[in-house]
Task: structure prediction
Amino acid sequence: MTIQPNLPDIFVDERRVRQVLINLLSNAIKFTADGGQVALTVSQIFERPINTLKYFTNSDSQSTEIQDAHAQNTKRSPSFISFKVTDTGIGISAVDLEKLFKPFIQIDSSLSRQYAGTGLGLSLVKRMVEMHQGLVSVTSEVGVGSCFEVCFPVMELANAPVTIPASQLDASPTAITMDQPRPPVILLVEDNEANVNTISSYLKAKNYQILLAKDGVQAIEMAKLHHPDLILMDIQMPNLDGLTAMQQIRQTPELASTMIIALTALAMPGDRERCLSAGANDYFTKPIKLKQLAVKIQELLAAK
Result:
């Protein structure tokens, strides 16, 4: 990791930016074989960046660029803070690069893919960066590696300190009772770090206790060990897919009545029926609408 010294402050949503970087770094690690390299570089740039997808061919040094119209609508800033995630992984082909930031599109769409799908995660990355008036660019060559760069504008903030009148401060201590009921336990089974952070943060704020599993194998083990009140089960995962995991969970007597909500980026005819027949109580397609998910969780737990 390389960080340029004396960087200026940027005004951003810290949680969202953390989600962006976790997504890019986790993808770089997943797509880089043992012995490869992943690097994060943070610096200030003064040239105006653009949203660019650039790929190199193996036959020559020429490149092709696909520019995003969003760059033309972004407000001007005197400088940007650049976060570059570079890897020596498998690289991305020109065909896949063009659809990389589209939702519901995954380069490997098999249920038990070798590499965790990133299409939905990168779609969220692009949206969160653009919410900050930022920009995204990608450079990649198959067999050589990729470089994802996100840039956030440096805002000129007022130097005057913010003061809060003492009358607006609540000095009374918060009462804590020891007989509060145990919060419901939810097992979140998801292999995409950005989705994990988004869903778990939202549900923790709703006073749920969250357990995490990254594939179907871990899901079965943790369900048997912890007996969660509800399971959120991703369908496309490495090692063991969600459909098979739900079937095995339902075969365990003590978990037969555990509420399960299936989460999937697939929206093909018959997918809902496949999930329900495998053991799910309900079914949500990605991107997940968190408020609707919270309502459904509450309904299922109340009916349990």
